[in-house]
Amino acid sequence: MTDARRAYYDRIAAHGLTPLWEVLGALVPPEPRSPAVPALWRYAELREHVMEAGRVITAEEAERRVLILENPGLRGQSCITQSLYAGLQLILPGEVAPAHRHTQSALRLVLDGEGAYTAVDGERTTMRRGDFIITPAWTFHDHGNLGDQPVVWLDGLDIPTVRFLDAGFAEKAVTQVQSVARPEGDALARYGANLLPLDYAPKPADPTRVFVYPHEKTRAAMQAIAAASAPDPHLAHKQRYVNPATGTSPMPTIAAFTQAIPAGFETRALRSTDGTIHVCLEGSGEAEIAGTTYRFAENDVFVVPSWHRLQLRASRDTMLFSFSDRPVQQALGLWREERL
Ligand code: 1HN
Fold first, then answer.
1. Residues with beta carbon inside 6 Å of ligand 1?
2. CATH for 39-339?
3. What digits encode the pLDDT tens for the residues 30-40?
4. pTM here?
């Protein structure tokens, strides 16, 4: 750069100005160039470290005893993609994670142990392995472990999205444990049984009142689908979780999916603009992400950043759970997918 130009940049900098032409290419790239990188977390390697957190701090002191899964390309930012956060949460027998609420939306995917519950707006649900549970924005929620085993689940939140918009609010409840207002299963009976209350008229972006999607039901549906049809070349068998009252994603900022891949099947390459977090619930296989192969087994988590090619190979019959910011991109007209 010429001295005259440098001197000019320095002069305008004093006025809060900077030249667009120096940054234009980076601001408007021809296609997404995510700073997030592909990564895999092996649960077998993480488990002992998660359990050790139980000896380092109590759930009450931590408020939420979680180890964040930080994308290696985004260290220090508490995120797994640019828009989403993920972590592994541990709750020991007898512990409670105190009630609070925030404008961030959360999902849980139960991975290890049983006997814990989560309560959303006064209703508890028992957490069983593979269950997909949501905590919509601004709903009071607390967790407890009434059993005799440590329980671990994956948390997924839209924290970076809400941070980007500077729209975060949070508050603690007056009591640590919410009093039980309705029996377990109440929301599922009212909103998740192909029935709705007569006066219930949700707006399109309202989160679903169904806050648990039991794995047992999802698994049975996916097995029926896999038995009845040939796998799609790019997706094998993939379905999205929905708000049954609207057909939209369970929460406005996060989409969630379940995918069954028959043993020996290999998907064709696909890329999409929604960076996606995958969790292996059953089986094992390989994810080839932009040319690098990652071997995954049960409870492993891997992230596919925006616009990175993904190919999946199943060694055994495999079930994957995944989530992304797809509904945000779709609402803004930004979402793109390419099936190769
Ligand atoms: C949160 O409320 C939970 O409720 C988990 O279990 C992780 C990370 C950041 C902010 C709030 C939970 C969280 C969180």
1. 64, 66, 87, 89, 97, 102, 106, 141, 143, 155, 157, 159
2. 2.60.120.10
3. 999 999 999 99
4. 0.97
